[in-house]
């Protein structure tokens, strides 16, 4: 994929996030691996106003190239892409139900087998740290160990993938699971699937290629 197309795909991903209700306003941000660095959304610019030239190229040392400031959350985008060579795209949103769980610092347990699409038996919620800080990035990386998605306490969610499409797909799945879990909690304490069952699910999902490739 050439640079201009990738820049446009980042914008299209942002527009899709808001159109689907997965995000609101300019609260989310999106990045994609490019050459030896990444392309990332600019800070505080309405998605509808973005043009490919507005997307920022950042080197892995944090040097930014562009006409705007990069997203304030560039650190965890950069750190995820640097630490996880299998990941090529990162989506961060303030999706309503995922954020509601994050407000009470609640991870999503294996109440539904689809929790496994994020890579494990839970979708963890990382501790709170001020947005845009290295402390937050460090917490996110820990929560993403052996995972492709996590919640961020008092903040939102992060989802990763081999492509922008896969990262957005996973973010949508996480929000659906958060909604289902929140709804179940209104009725009572939902039963959590056993570790043995989740091991079977995770193994079975490998043959379906969930969240891997296109």
Low-confidence stretches: none
Number of helices: 6
The CATH level-2 architecture is identified as 3-Layer(aba) Sandwich
The percentage helix is 25-40%
Strand arrangement, largest sheet? 4-3-2-1-5-8-7-6
Radius of gyration: 17 Å
Summarize model confidence as the mean pLDDT. 96
Largest sheet: 8 strands, mixed
Provide structural commentary:
This protein is of the alpha+beta class. It has a single domain (3-208), classed as 3-Layer(aba) Sandwich (L-fuculose-1-phosphate Aldolase). Helix content is 39%, strand content 15%. It is built from six helices and eight strands, in the order αββββαβαβαββαα. It has helices spanning 3-19, 74-83, 96-103, 134-143, 164-187, 195-208, and strands at 29-34, 37-40, 56-59, 64-65, 89-93, 125-126, 149-152, 156-161. An eight-stranded mixed beta sheet has the order 4-3-2-1-5-8-7-6, sandwiched between helices. Helix 2 packs across helix 4 and helix 3 crosses helix 5. The radius of gyration is 17 Å and the shape is globular.
SSE layout and pairing:
Blueprint: H1 3-19, E1 29-34, E2 37-40, E3 56-59, E4 64-65, H2 74-83, E5 89-93, H3 96-103, E6 125-126, H4 134-143, E7 149-152, E8 156-161, H5 164-187, H6 195-208
Parallel strand pairs: 6-7
Antiparallel strand pairs: 1-2, 1-5, 2-3, 3-4, 5-8, 7-8
Helix pairs in contact: 2-4, 3-5
Structure keywords:
39% helix, globular, L-fuculose-1-phosphate Aldolase, 214 residues, alpha+beta, eight-stranded mixed β-sheet
């Amino acid at each position: 994929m050439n640079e201009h197309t990738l820049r446009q795909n980042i914008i299209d991903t942002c527009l899709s996030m808001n159109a689907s209700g997965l995000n609101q306003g300019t609260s989310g941000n999106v990045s994609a691996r490019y050459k030896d660095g990444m392309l990332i959304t600019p800070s505080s610019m309405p998605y509808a106003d973005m043009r490919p030239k507005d997307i920022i190229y950042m080197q892995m040392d944090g040097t930014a190239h562009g006409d705007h400031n990069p997203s304030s959350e560039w650190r965890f985008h950069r750190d995820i892409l640097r630490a996880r060579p299998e990941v090529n795209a990162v989506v961060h949103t303030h999706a309503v139900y995922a954020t509601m769980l994050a407000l009470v610092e609640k991870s999503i347990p294996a109440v539904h087998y689809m929790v496994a699409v994020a890579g494990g038996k839970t979708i963890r919620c990382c501790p709170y740290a001020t947005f845009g800080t290295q402390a937050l990035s460090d917490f996110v990386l820990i929560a993403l160990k052996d995972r492709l998605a996590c919640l961020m306490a008092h903040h939102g969610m992060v989802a990763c993938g081999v492509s922008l499409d896969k990262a957005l797909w996973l973010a949508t799945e996480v929000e659906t699971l958060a909604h289902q879990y929140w709804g179940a909690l209104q009725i009572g304490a939902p039963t959590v699937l056993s570790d043995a069952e989740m091991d079977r699910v995770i193994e079975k999902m490998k043959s379906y290629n969930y969240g891997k490739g296109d």
